[in-house]
Design goal:
The structure holds 2 protein chains of 2 kinds. By secondary structure, chain A is mainly α. Helix content of chain A is about 75%, strand content about 0%. Chain B is rod-shaped and about 55 Å long. Classes of the chains: A mainly alpha, B mainly alpha.
Chain lengths: ~300, ~60
């Protein structure tokens, strides 16, 4: 019986219940706190860049709802993917495969948080942002996790969209709509996700193969993955500079993002060139590590410029 | 048979026996839920004041 099919064993003969073992920390782990911290950061930047004023308390509620919505997506993802998580070393210790939380408990927890975050955002901030948040959760859980993740090697590209929506949702909390500037923030994360995850997949290939997830290196091979990483990096570099080109970021951001994009490209070219042995692995690890810095720095620079220009 | 029927009914009323570990974790979860609910009460109160502002006092008696 797979973990996903496992039910709480409550029968008339043996009144034993599998559930109730989860600690508060296990439930926090279901929210994927590290992903949540990235969501909070990018959403905060989106909110600060958006034109218009928002009361700080309403801003705090918006970020809280977006963060809880992201956490709910994480919990529902772990509920559905428990069978995959159990066979990958990176995820085997998650609360469901570890037997600390039952799939039913995780599902209930995720759905409650999803409904609560959308409802509160709608009642307190605006219903457009709430509908957008609901769509983001739906996109991540149903379109990515349940449908495309196990179906296509382009899963990361599509799943990346769900991770790219938070700054747009935060923007819409302030303005009540979306526009080109907020779409640029979306595009930066959207284009960043494939090279980031494929670099990881290049040195964690065995894990995904064992789990039967059609990640690009498993299905199309490592050479095709290196081509794709390079293509997405070439697209990412100019999109990273787009906030300056479109006039909602300054010269300093323009110069810094161009430099960061160039370093990203050089590292992606290294991954493309080094295809054998230790050098190949090291190049992939270097690109993966730098990609984290890249996204953080691009958004931190946007935030810093908006704070300085607002003084 | 009345005796076995009584036994079954007694089992049912006894319900699920939680282990010590389950009881301890249930208590910590209950505290976390209580803290969350208290936080929501404060949040809704503050949001109400923020959204209504001074208008909260401006109503017909």
């Amino acid at each position: 019986m797979s973990l996903v099919e496992r039910q709480d064993t409550l029968t008339a003969d043996s009144l034993v219940w599998d559930g109730g073992h989860g600690s508060v920390a296990d439930y926090v782990a279901l929210l994927k706190p590290r992903v949540m911290s990235l969501v909070i950061f990018t959403a905060f930047v989106g909110m600060m860049l958006a034109p218009g004023d928002m009361h700080p308390v309403l801003g705090l509620v918006s970020i809280l709802c977006i963060a809880i919505g992201a956490g709910a997506s994480g919990a529902l993802n772990m509920w559905y993917d428990a069978d995959i998580d159990a066979v990958m070393t990176r995820t085997a210790k998650r609360p469901i495969p570890a037997g600390k939380i039952t799939p039913q408990e995780a599902f209930t927890f995720g759905m409650t948080l999803a409904a609560g975050s959308v409802l509160i955002l709608g009642l307190v901030v605006n219903w457009f942002a709430a509908a957008f948040l609901a769509f983001t959760i739906f996109f991540y859980v149903v379109i990515y996790t349940m449908w495309l993740k196990r179906l296509t090697p382009q899963n990361i590209v599509i799943g990346g969209a769900a991770g790219a929506f938070p700054p747009m949702v935060a923007w819409s909390c302030v303005t009540g709509d979306v526009n080109l500037e907020s779409a640029v923030l979306f595009m930066i994360i959207f284009m960043w996700t494939p090279p980031h995850f494929w670099a990881l997949a290049l040195f964690k290939c065995g894990d995904y193969r064992a789990a039967g997830v059609p990640m690009l290196p498993v299905v199309a091979g490592e050479t095709a993955t290196r081509h794709q990483i390079l293509i997405y990096s070439i697209l990412l570099a100019p999109i990273g500079v787009a906030p300056y080109l479109l006039g909602f970021a300054g010269v300093f951001y323009g110069a810094a993002s161009a430099t960061l994009g160039a370093i990203f490209l050089v590292l992606a070219a290294d991954v493309w060139r080094n295809r054998e042995g230790d050098a190949a692995r090291k190049s992939a690890v270097r690109l993966f590590t730098f990609s984290l810095f890249y996204l953080f720095l691009v958004f931190a620079l946007l935030l810093a410029e908006s704070l300085i220009s607002g003084m | 048979m009345p005796m076995s029927a009584d036994k079954t009914s007694a089992d049912k009323t006894a319900g699920i026996e939680l282990s010590e570990d389950q009881k301890k974790r249930r208590r910590s979860r209950s505290i976390a839920i209580a803290v969350t609910l208290a936080g929501l009460v404060v949040l809704f109160y503050v949001v109400t004041i923020v959204k209504m502002g001074p208008e909260i006092m401006n109503r017909a008696l």
